[in-house]
């Protein structure tokens, strides 16, 4: 008996990106009603001036559908050609089922394989690694990767360490086979020893007993230390593994956790001045898994970045987990 | 082995790079927070930079004690 193996494409690439930002603009002054802080302090410590939160009629599903629809339309890929859907999220508040099958159904993707992954702010790059492997391994030909978050739902408005950090939103990409490589080797990992650095204040069970909805908490300094030390080195490894020198890079899209982390990564990587750097944090905040595709779409839409350029992306967050790649922009 | 002055000078460069403090202000008797206006995030970054630059390990419980430039230089001298 000879067992057939799946055979994929030699390479994969991102064909298109789309994103969705919710309608409610939340500025720092609004949040300072609930916390003892100021616009100046928040701006100086994080770079964030405002963020978007879901409003009436908006939720994680509507954001994901909008972002995915945009990416699919731009890709030109027919709905029935998409054979897998991955949703990266930590804010779909149902233990089961996953959001991906529902999304696939709403988008009319037939019986595409569909599942969610939980890798927090690294979720997009984790999903990208999986999607790339699926296409190259022959498990799928076209993959829809959606990263969507509504962290506002699990934000404690009275926590002066996190109340101002997160914004809601979604980003999506369609990936497909390619003659040339569009996704460099993933550099990824985890440090469960810092499981508590970004955490929920309750499990679902203890939250139910206490009559509260669990909210997110963070040891900001521990995360900052990890991001400016370990993650800076991981970002360098992404370039090395892809065989790309800083001079060959066009665009840098780090996870938007804090503008000062981005500043440090830039100093460490010694990227040339010409490299376009994502700074969506100023008006979108930290969008968790959705950050990188939202920033990618914003840079391409504004014309600051262009299709075919080489970009370094790296996500890092709760777990702690991180993942990054060098990619060709769609 | 680097002298105290050499370590101070290298640390001054790092503090300048991270927090924009003029290198000549980074003297042994200066407090990072009170005299040099280094905030807590910049302090974390300076200590991460010290670990890299001087090859020392600075655990969190130690970092709390490094209040002045002199404290940091003495720690680096003792552990590098």
In short:
The complex is a heterodimer of chains A (330) and B (80). Chain A is α/β, with parallel strands linked by helices and 330 residues long.
Can you offer a commentary on this structure?
- The complex is a heterodimer of chains A (330) and B (80).
- Chain A is built from ten helices and 14 strands.
- With 330 residues, chain A is α/β, with parallel strands linked by helices.
- In chain A, the strands form four sheets. In chain A, strands 1-7-6-4-5 form a five-stranded mixed sheet, with helices on both faces.
- In chain A, strand 13 (310-317) and strand 14 form a beta hairpin.
- In chain A, helix 3 (60-75) crosses helix 4 and helix 7 (220-242) packs parallel to helix 8.
- The longest helix of chain A has 23 residues, at 220-242.
- The radius of gyration of chain A is 19 Å and the shape is globular.
- Chain A starts with 10 loop residues before the first strand and ends with a strand.
- The mean pLDDT of chain A is 96.
- By secondary structure, chain B is mainly alpha-helical.
- The longest helix of chain B is centred in the N-terminal third of the chain and has 16 residues, at 4-19.
- Chain A binds chain B through residues 44-45, 220-222, 224-225, 228-229, 258, 260, 264, 267, and chain B through 17-18, 39-42, 44-45, 47-48, 51-52, 60.
Descriptive key words:
heterodimer; A: 330 residues; alpha/beta; five-stranded mixed beta sheet; 10 helices; 33% helix; B: 80 residues; mainly alpha; 4 helices
What topology emerges from the helices and strands here?
The complex is a heterodimer of chains A (330) and B (80).
Chain A: E1 11-20, E2 24-27, H1 28-31, H2 39-46, E3 50-53, H3 60-75, E4 82-88, H4 99-107, E5 113-117, H5 123-137, E6 142-149, E7 169-178, E8 187-190, E9 198-200, H6 204-210, E10 216-218, H7 220-242, E11 251-254, H8 259-269, E12 276-277, H9 281-284, H10 291-302, E13 310-317, E14 321-328
Parallel strand pairs in A: 4-5, 4-6, 11-12, 11-13
Antiparallel strand pairs in A: 1-7, 2-3, 6-7, 8-14, 9-10, 13-14
Helix pairs in contact in A: 3-4, 7-8
Chain B: H1 4-19, H2 40-54, H3 60-63, H4 69-79
């Amino acid at each position: 008996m000879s067992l057939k193996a799946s055979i994929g494409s030699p390479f994969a690439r991102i064909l298109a990106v789309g994103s969705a930002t919710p309608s409610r603009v939340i500025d720092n002054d609004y949040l300072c009603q609930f916390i003892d802080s100021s616009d100046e302090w928040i701006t100086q410590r994080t770079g964030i001036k405002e963020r978007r939160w879901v409003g009436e009629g908006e939720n994680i599903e509507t954001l994901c559908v909008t972002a995915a629809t945009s990416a699919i339309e731009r890709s030109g890929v027919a709905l029935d050609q998409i054979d897998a859907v991955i949703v990266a999220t930590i804010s779909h508040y149902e233990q089961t089922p996953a959001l991906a099958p529902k999304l696939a159904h709403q988008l009319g993707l037939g019986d595409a394989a569909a599942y969610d992954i939980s890798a927090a702010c690294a979720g997009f790059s984790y999903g990208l690694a999986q999607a790339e492997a699926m296409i190259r391994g022959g498990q799928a030909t076209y993959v829809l990767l959606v990263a969507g978050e509504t962290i506002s739902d699990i934000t404690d408005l009275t926590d002066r360490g996190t109340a101002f950090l997160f914004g809601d939103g979604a980003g999506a990409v369609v990936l497909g086979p390619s003659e040339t490589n569009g996704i460099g080797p993933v550099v990824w990992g985890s440090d469960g020893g810092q499981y508590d650095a970004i955490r929920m204040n309750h499990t679902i069970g203890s939250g139910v007993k206490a009559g509260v909805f669990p909210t997110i908490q963070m040891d900001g300094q521990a995360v900052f230390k990890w991001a400016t030390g370990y993650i800076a080195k991981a970002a360098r490894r992404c370039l090395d593994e892809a065989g790309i020198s800083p001079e060959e890079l066009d665009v840098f899209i780090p996870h938007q956790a804090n503008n000062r982390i981005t500043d440090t990564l830039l100093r460490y990587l010694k990227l040339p001045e010409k490299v376009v750097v994502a700074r969506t944090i100023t008006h979108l905040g930290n969008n968790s898994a959705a950050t990188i595709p939202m920033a990618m779409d914003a840079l391409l839409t504004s014309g600051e970045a262009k299709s075919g350029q080489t970009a370094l992306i790296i996500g890092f967050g709760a777990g702690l987990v991180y993942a990054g790649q060098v990619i060709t922009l769609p | 082995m680097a002298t105290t002055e050499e370590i101070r000078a290298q640390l001054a460069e790092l503090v300048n790079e991270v927090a924009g403090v003029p290198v000549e202000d980074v003297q042994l008797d200066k407090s990072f927070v009170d005299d040099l206006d280094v905030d807590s995030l910049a302090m974390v970054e300076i200590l991460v930079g010290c670990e890299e630059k001087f090859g020392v390990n600075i655990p969190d419980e130690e970092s709390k004690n490094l209040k002045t430039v002199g404290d940091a230089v003495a720690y680096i001298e003792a552990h590098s």
